[in-house]
Amino acid sequence: MIDWSDVPGRLARLAAHPGTTFGADAHRWRLEPPLTPAELAALEAQVRVELPAAYRAFLLQAGRGGAGPGYGLFPPRLTGGGWQWPGDDGAELTDVTILAEPFPHEKAFTPAPWLPESPDEADYPTDEEFSAAEERYEELCQAAEPEYHPGLLYLCHQGCAYREALVVSGPARGQMWADDTAGDGPIRPLLDGDGNRIDFAQWYRRWLDGLTA
């Protein structure tokens, strides 16, 4: 099993000298308590998929969420409706009922690439007309591309509706992907400096090492 035992201590040292790290005001360098093995078993039974090894180990050893890239990791929590990954600006894009269905993509893709460009406020004489154009565009986007992607677990947001997610099933299982659709970009695999795809452990430690190097 991957060893995450060093993470709480490193975060504690960062908390003592917080600086101005992006997103730290949200997570404050704190991790929520780890899942127990029984909780993890119940979560995986509900979503009908075994989570990728690096992320499973993190949940058991380090914490279920909190301090991490961007504004921090969305934590799995048991709610009245079962296990969910609650949070803001992206957590709602995880549909736990389809996590076991294969994420079909292996390469970066742009949802509904035939769509026109999003409305530009400068092209509309009144705020009401611009708002109406935005609403029509949003309806077109929703009709063209499903809001939820099977097998994709959103873990954090970077602000301005940019999100990052873990593929938990399908050919790209275990890889971290970025959702740049807020800026009309693609949904794409995250890469290291050599152009290789990265998993959860590489993604998290790249963030942590960049802060403590």
From TrEMBL:
Signal peptide: none annotated. InterPro entries: Knr4/Smi1-like_dom, Knr4/Smi1-like_sf. Residues 34-206 form the Knr4/Smi1-like domain. This is Knr4/Smi1-like domain-containing protein. It holds the Pfam family SMI1_KNR4.
